[in-house]
From TrEMBL:
GO terms for molecular function: 3-carboxy-cis,cis-muconate cycloisomerase activity; lyase activity. The keyword RNA-binding does not apply. It comes from Microvirga thermotolerans. NCBIfam families: PRK05975.1, protocat_pcaB. Its EC number is 5.5.1.2. Transmembrane segments: none annotated. One of its GO terms (biological process) is 3,4-dihydroxybenzoate catabolic process. This is 3-carboxy-cis,cis-muconate cycloisomerase. Keywords: Isomerase. Belongs to the class-II fumarase/aspartase family.
Length: 357
């Protein structure tokens, strides 16, 4: 089995999400970084830091760039970040007399972080769409089955009669709060990173804020002071990912318990088989939601270690984010996809003890 569980073709079929994973592929990261370098050159020409001819040539080179992937991998291993080797290759592609105008005044973290934010924008839109679809499916289920009488359980014991609508509200309402939280977070999350070598924009010779404003506008991001060592934006988004997974895990846990033969409060469209007991239909999708929730909860604690970001830049904290954030994103995406499939085939069954609800 692969060292990264999400890259395993077998385990990935159970817990992976190819659409989310594609946003964190090498190709997607490179495309985002080239978009940043392109927009940086255009913005610098706009405010007079480089000539229009230089910007035109850089844009042309970015759009036709053919990377030496082996060289990029070697550079990543040597420098701990891919941008120095990328800039070397890009300058070579631009050629004289404009090669020195490439990446002028910027630092590697400006390009990597802004490229990440561009991809997080796509991720946020994808996940928001999935949450909205899931909420709508659950609302339709509530309209259809909401009057079905069930028995509530507290501390794993039968409590009092209630309805399927009561149960569904405990699933829908937190998802609605997650939708709202993401909308509120996006203006803070989707911000430009541009600080230059030590984060004070001093390398742009008094034009740092004007350049940042022009670059943010070109990329469709919010203007903000440099946040090289201030990783609360990433930490907050990771926490949101874990909260979404946790809500989906609660839904999965509820369904798994309600689908037990001796409880029988829900029926699933399909289940998993057993190699030894052919009569069984296991609630696989529900179980996966529980596992993904616990996985993301564990990853969140590790991701938040990257908030301990020494001085003006930390290679260790930065690398930790690269290791963890893509896994958290894919885990959340997979959970939403599994939850949607589960909800699509879910049906509530009246409980004998709950008929008086």
């Amino acid at each position: 089995m692969a060292g990264d569980p999400l890259s395993s073709s077998l385990l990935g079929a159970l817990v992976g999400d190819g659409e989310v994973a594609a946003l964190f592929s090498d190709e997607a990261e490179l495309a985002a970084m080239l978009r940043v370098e392109e927009a940086l050159a255009q913005a610098q020409a706009e405010i007079g830091l480089i000539g229009e001819d230089a910007a035109f040539r850089i844009v042309e080179a970015c759009r036709t760039f053919v990377p030496d992937w082996n060289g990029l991998a070697t550079g990543m291993s040597r420098d701990g970040v891919v941008v120095p080797e990328l800039v070397r290759q890009l300058r070579q592609a631009v050629g004289e007399p404009y090669e020195r105008a490439v990446h002028l005044g910027a630092t590697s973290q400006d390009v990597v972080d802004t490229g990440l934010v561009l991809r997080l924008r796509d991720l946020a839109a994808l996940l928001a769409g999935r949450i909205a679809a899931l909420v709508e499916t659950l609302r339709l289920l509530k309209r259809r089955d909401g009057d079905v009488g069930l028995v509530a359980h507290t501390r794993m014991q039968q409590a009092l009669p209630f309805t399927a609508a009561d149960k569904l509200d405990t699933w829908i309402q937190p998802l609605e709060r997650h939708e709202e939280a993401l909308r509120e977070m996006e203006p803070r999350l989707l911000t430009l990173q541009l600080g230059g070598p030590i984060g004070n924009r001093g390398s742009f010779h008094g034009h740092g804020d004007a350049l940042a404003d022009a670059l943010a506008e070109r990329l469709g991001l919010a203007f903000a002071p440099a946040w090289h060592s201030q990783r609360d934006r990433i930490g907050a988004f990771a926490a949101w990912l874990s909260l979404v997974s946790g809500t989906l895990g609660k839904i999965g846990q509820d369904i798994a318990l309600m689908a037990q033969n001796e409880v029988g409060q829900v029926r699933l469209a399909s289940g998993g088989g057993s190699s030894a007991m052919p009569h069984k239909s296991n609630p696989v999708l529900a179980e996966v939601l529980v596992a993904l929730a616990r996985f993301n909860a564990g990853l969140l604690g590790t991701l938040h270690q990257a908030l301990v970001h020494e001085n003006e830049r930390s290679g260790a904290a930065w690398t930790l984010e690269w290791l963890i954030l893509p896994r958290m994103a894919e885990t959340t995406g997979a959970g939403l996809a599994k939850a949607q499939a589960l909800a699509d085939g879910l049906r509530f069954v009246p409980s004998a003890a709950g008929k008086g609800a």
